[in-house]
Specification:
Shape: globular
Strand content: 25-35%
CATH topology: Rossmann fold
Order of helices and strands: EHEHEHEEEH
Number of strands: 6
Strand order of the largest sheet: 2-1-3-4-6-5
Distance between the termini: 25 Å
CATH class: Alpha Beta
Helix content: 25-40%
CATH superfamily: Response regulator
Number of helices: 4
Largest sheet: 6 strands, mixed
Radius of gyration: 13 Å
């Protein structure tokens, strides 16, 4: 699909990444998976995505650090990002959209676990520029 939106999915849990990728692809998105921040950075620099979905806790760096490194580069400054994290669900906010601040900019964050419909709604909002 030539006009499909490109998403980089940065998720260290491979089973979760595969499920999310399958869901996103079924909605018409082109998805590239990365299980570590450094590889996601390389992917994004090679071919900038329309959206980057980033897990917060990763084996090689914090997800916010990967976003900070990317957005420090001029051509990546306006990168659209959605954080996914189980850290928020510990406070009873499972599936709720909140905001995470990285390098002075706020990004939407979705608490795990979440409903696929919620994820789809948030992604559509971000890509439409509403977030």
């Amino acid at each position: 699909m030539a006009d499909s939106k490109k998403i980089i999915l940065l998720e260290d849990d491979k089973a979760s990444a595969r499920l999310l990728s399958a869901f996103l692809e079924s909605k018409g998105y082109e998805v590239q998976e990365s299980y570590e921040g450094r590889f996601a950075i390389e992917l994004a620099l090679r071919e900038p995505p329309d959206l980057m979905i980033v897990d917060v806790l990763l084996p090689d760096m914090h997800g916010s650090e990967a976003v900070k490194k990317l957005t420090a580069i001029d051509r990546m400054h306006d990168l659209k990002v959605l954080f996914l994290t189980s850290l928020l669900s510990k406070s009873g906010d499972s599936g709720k959209v909140t905001r995470l601040k990285v390098a002075g900019k706020e990004y939407p964050a979705l608490a795990k676990p979440f409903k696929p419909a919620s994820l789809e709604e948030v992604i559509s909002s971000i890509l439409a520029g509403d977030n």
